[in-house]
Amino acid sequence: MFNSEGYLELFTDMMSEGFIVIDNNGTIQIYNNKAKEIFGILYNQQISHPRGKIQTGDIVIIGDNAIGKDDGNLDAETLEYLGIHDRRIEKEKILIAVGVYKDKNIKPVYLCKRDSEVKDALKMETKFLGIDIKVIIDFMNKIITIEVDNEKYTMNYINHIGYLVILDGKTKKMKFYQAQGYTARGEGLRDILNGKEYMAKGENSKYLNVIGKNIFEIHGGSSTIKEFCEVAKGENISYVDEFKEINGFPTMCTLIPVDKDNERIGAALKVEDISEIKKVIRERDEALLNLEEAEKQLDEEKMLKELFHNIVGESREMNYIKKLALKASNTNSTVLILGESGTGKTLLAKAIHENSNRDKPFIHVNCGAIPETLLESELFGYARGAFTGARVDGKKGFFEMANGGTIFLDEIGEISTNLQVKLLQVLQDKSFYKVGGQEKIKVDVRVIAASNRNLEDEMLKGNFREDLYYRINVFPIWIPPLRDRKEDIYSLVEMLLPSICQKIGCENKTISVEALNMLLEYDWPGNVRELENILERAINLCDGNTIFSKHLILKLNRSEELETEDIVPLKESIEEFEKKTIEKAMKLYKGDKKKAMSGLEISKTTFYEKLKKYGIN
User: Fold this and answer.
1) Which CATH number describes the domain made up of 482-563?
2) What is the mean pLDDT of residues 285-290?
3) What pTM was computed for the model?
4) Is the Cβ–Cβ distance between 507 and 322 less than 8 Å?
């Protein structure tokens, strides 16, 4: 009733799964439309090009997420056609390359990275022979994009891919780009670069006719295809709905032997595309991972808030400082806290100690407030009869008091260079001698130092020992000034107002929006300490329950101070700058006037006039 051959093709093309039948020689007898869709043989390309092959001088653009994997076995030898001679080019590395085919005079541009060196994406932008080229290998979304003068060519992938675009060397126009099904068409990177002819793309181009071709010619030698052929030749293997990967596409396969009169004549393979299912699963897994990371971040923020409740501020800078403080709490390394006066260095040092495993005292030593003549005996103590007026039984020093705990050396930059030598010895050996004593005392002390000075500058000036600086600068934490984190003013005011009201014995007060905005606009040279003082003054001046702008007494901002006090006549300012510049030049060239006038790029006459005018010898 039906023409069996014609209707067989019609019926198989109506199937919702891919269906492939081969004979016992591996020759394809049936290959339905769904199978062609799955493996990219029926791919509706929107950009067209005629058939052809690569020519000398053509421009080649490559994006390969794993060299040698699903790119036609691309290797370093083939890449030499583009002028790439690099022993770092190895299998499974990531490659982005732009070069000219078989032209040794034009240097290629490329990036080659290990998978471990790239996180979310590898990108390269270049202007090559006047053409704007951008290549992005997006590992998160599994897509490669090659952009040529704003024309985009993209390819999605499952696991591995080698993507290729070729531009005509003469016209600089696209002559070939890869599309889905390039493996079936034999258009892998290595094939094309070795001169194999490629097929046309577009509406009027012919689809690849696979009927009558050997299955290995279309699908290569993957384990599933080898198994398919073995069954067609007589192996007794069959399975239903097993996961298999063919040409890089994840599929669910059913393999059925085909027998006639008890004799094996071939095999059938039913294929279901599960790449979309995998994509949904991957998106779900990514969403769960993001949720997990968000929960972890919330837990970390909650923990930091609980552990460092006295460190007020939710700005990015303060949250980073809290994270550093948590790490510092879990180590015995020396910590150096830097920052302007009033930023909260003492508060942070105490919080680090309180969250550490040290349950002995936190000893705060303000090195700048103790006279130099007394500081040594205060730090290390003194023995009995060490000097006139000494206590009969001697005295413990701060280091001995802090044994098993933490000593906080505040304003360490104020210590004299002589005392710095002894301090260095303590930090190195955790031992010292009392003033006038002969017995070595060993201590287990965690040292936290702080300074509002730039210790590197002090070191260069000779005021601070280099060896001591490197000894205390093991775990540095820098607290930014309040003017650089003004968003923290809200939470600081909210915390400070009730505590100040309680301290001075008055009812709680609130602050008006106008007054708060005034605080936000101020420059805060005195940082948090100045904020606390200004709020206390405002509370005392305020008769009602609300602090208004009239109650805030703020200094002029630095910019305003400059406007009123530091403006000098322009001519005077220029002359002062000119004089300093000439003096610097003379110092640099060690008094060689010829070199100085050459460096300043002025004439001999002008140079000598300036020397005379400014009295420079």
Assistant:
1) 1.10.8.60
2) 70
3) 0.47
4) no
